[in-house]
Known about the structure:
Blueprint: H1 2-9, H2 16-21, H3 39-45, H4 47-54, H5 70-76, H6 93-110, H7 116-134, E1 138-141, E2 154-157, E3 163-173, E4 178-187, E5 192-200, H8 206-222, E6 228-233, H9 236-242, H10 252-262, E7 267-272, H11 279-295
Parallel strand pairs: 3-6, 6-7
Antiparallel strand pairs: 1-2, 3-4, 4-5
InterPro entries: RNase_H-like_dom_plant, RNase_H-like_EbsB-rel, RNaseH-like_sf, RNaseH_domain, RNaseH_sf, RVT-Znf
Domain RNase H type-1: 168-287
GO molecular function, one term: RNA-DNA hybrid ribonuclease activity
Amino acid sequence: MKLFVWSIIQKALPLGENLQQRGLLSGARCKRCNEVETAIHTFFRCPFAQEVWKRVPLNCVVHLATLESFTDVVVALKRTFCLPPTGITGTILPWICWVIWIARNQLVFENKPTSPAEAATKGLRLAREWSSAQSSIEVIKTPKPRGTHSRRRMQLTVEDPLLMTCRSDAAWDVRTKRAGLAWILTDSKGSCITQETVTQDKINSPLIAEALALRSALLSAGNLGFPKLRCFSDNETLIRAINGDMHVKEIFGIVMDIKQLSSAFIVISFSHFFRSQNVETDGLAKQSLSSSLYLDPFVG
């Protein structure tokens, strides 16, 4: 969360004002109220943000909308805390700002509204899970190897409840130019959160299909409220293009979409793994494509 707050302070988030200053956007208005989309407006002055903050049980009143900069807000909230029995230790600021940011992205990219009550509840839940995780660090003692006199090794392990893993894949039919896209999202324990498939027509290559599958997976992941995401694909070209190791004209636009969607997460990574590690997602993609070809009367 420190990185997210740092991004706000450094004007690194793709807010309307920041994009306009970089010459990337002609308009810089808040989609909810049509005011200039600055950080202080988005997170504190917008009527939606104010309603979210009203639902946060702080120990004292802080007039956030009257402050002039995000840094001023950080200072003002430094000594505040959430009243019991929320179970939250530490500042609530990054968590509420995070859910406001998620709600903003869902509205901008998917036209999906979020109520202030939903956002506040999600922010409090994330903060509580984080606080709980910090107190559940387990110290594991490893036995000292025989014949050595080294000190006992100590390893800290903790399951991160804020981390989600994404595996995506695609199956492509060269004759019909149709693709089956699939993705599986799992939590830090490996339990499946959701698995989804979709078919798309007029896809000119398997690489484009793979890129579209990952983009669809990010759209789905962004709705679940996890701030950390690990993405895996068995297409090495796609991963290298996303990570900036190579330029692929064929998927340039989709890669830009993926990078834009990535801004919804505090921490995100894109990694390549072997096809043998992606059997389940591969099967879903092939099944989706096969079913669509079988059911389509125009495909002979």
